[in-house]
Amino acid sequence: xxxxxxxxxxxxxxxxxxxxxxxxxxxxxxxxxxxxxxxxxxxxxxxxxxxxxxxxxxxxxxxxxxxxxxxxxxxxxxxxxxxxxxxxxxxxxxxxxxxxxxxxxxxxxxxxxxxxxxxxxxxxxxxxxxxxxxxxxxxxxxxxxxxxxxxxxxxxxxxxxxxxxxxxxxxxxxxxxxxxxxxxxxxxxxxxxxxxxxxxxxxxxxxxxxxxxxxxxxxxxxxxxxxxxxxxxxxxxxxxxxxxxxxxxxxxxxxxxxxxxxxxxxxxxxxxxxxxxxxxxxxxxxxxxxxxxxxxxxxx
Amino acid sequence: xxxxxxxxxxxxxxxxxxxxxxxxxxxxxxxxxxxxxxxxxxxxxxxxxxxxxxxxxxxxxxxxxxxxxxxxxxxxxxxxxxxxxxxxxxxxxxxxxxxxxxxxxxxxxxxxxxxxxxxxxxxxxxxxxxxxxxxxxxxxxxxxxxxxxxxxxxxxxxxxxxxxxxxxxxxxxxxxxxxxxxxxxxxxxxxxxxxxxxxxxxxxxxxxxxxxxxxxxxxxxxxxxxxxxxxxxxxxxxxxxxxxxxxxxxxxxxxxxxxxxxxxxxxxxxxxxxxxxxxxxxxxxxx
Lengths: 300, 287
Known about the structure:
The structure holds two protein chains of two kinds.
Chain A: H1 2-10, H2 13-28, H3 30-61, H4 82-113, H5 119-133, H6 136-150, H7 157-181, H8 185-193, H9 198-227, H10 230-233, H11 253-263, H12 267-299
Chain B: H1 2-43, H2 45-50, E1 54-55, E2 62-63, H3 66-97, H4 100-115, H5 118-137, H6 144-154, H7 156-169, H8 172-180, H9 185-196, H10 198-214, H11 217-222, H12 240-247, H13 253-286
Antiparallel strand pairs in B: 1-2
């Protein structure tokens, strides 16, 4: 092994000289050396923790992925995660139906209609910022008090979805607004110049070219809902069955994961569920950054 | 005529949509306070906030949440002690030390860290960190230390992301000026660039505090949930957030309202932290 590293170090002569120079510099300046080592070490720790976490869950989880985990019906014997997985998709879809139009319309108002520096706009911004800082357990409490008890929706798909919708609203508003703002003014001017009204300009000229940015925000929001637990525990309920209507209680995948690991009887299944959840969420995040990257490329 | 009507109609629709977030904040405040404040009044604000005994099942029951407030503060402080130095140094590495090729791997890695759901962190803490502490230091393992380590990891992406942006926003002339005066790369970064990025880094820490104090599902699995004021970091505590999660499923009447009141206290903490964050950001903006 030492031969190989020596070869890699010695072959480009310049690199060695630079390395030696640097080392000589450090020799005279111990503080700089310490700082350099500290910085590198911390970056290494961050990276190592991530890697360890991913590999640990994957290695212990993948062997436990058995077909019975994907059985159509849940019972305490097979601890199937399929109903929870489907519930997760339903709940996420429903929350998007509630939240996306609201978020996009808000962003359109903020970016296209509102006058700069108006009081109303700053209030909207402050509240959106406040919403994004509220921890999910507070959303869960609110959802329980408002949707479940006050509106009598009980523990239901709808109550969970509505709670999740409020939670991701600030994210959708912010990403959509950024996407709208990055559309060059030339698009708007050209559209106005051709005689289009404001509304037509927004829907036909501005919105289409902002779609990749909006999409990447929506995908990010999906990731948040899929991974959410605390806000859904006391709104969506914990019943691991396929819902009959939007008013039946459901259990999402992360809730399933929480219940499995806090019960402590099904450790193997918990590992397997963790793998499915992890892959789902990370896949969604990758998709989001992929969409965002394509957008950047297109804009040049 | 028809077009004018449509224009105004949609403008009004957009305006109404824009009020949604205001309505949401107002509703959240209203419902939390209406349900929580009467309980605080009934228990007595002093007994509630400063009472050291939480025993809702006793008769007469006592509802003191001081152990939870202390627990939240300890766990958050621990997370800051662990997460902030590592986070800031990592941000420095990514902004000023990292070769471009490595950055292309590191940046998505940090994003990944931010994307992992808290329940997975909690599970990881339960199966890795807790046994590790149990085997090295003894005790149950579920402890302030376990929660602090886990939260320290969880706030890393927040701290790295915002700090890195702040460091990158410092004009190059700061760095070049320091180099011209004979400083090494490290000295230039640490004593010239970093002080200039101070307020952005502070903002990242404040946001990290907010995330740590509000985290629920990861903490509930590793913190032990004993309602006591701990005398060692190897003892279990209960935080404000975990108090709500563990007891809400079976709580009734005043007990339930006391839990909601716990949520109110948490909410007020978060509002204060958010206020600090936006003050720091505004100060930075005006500079």
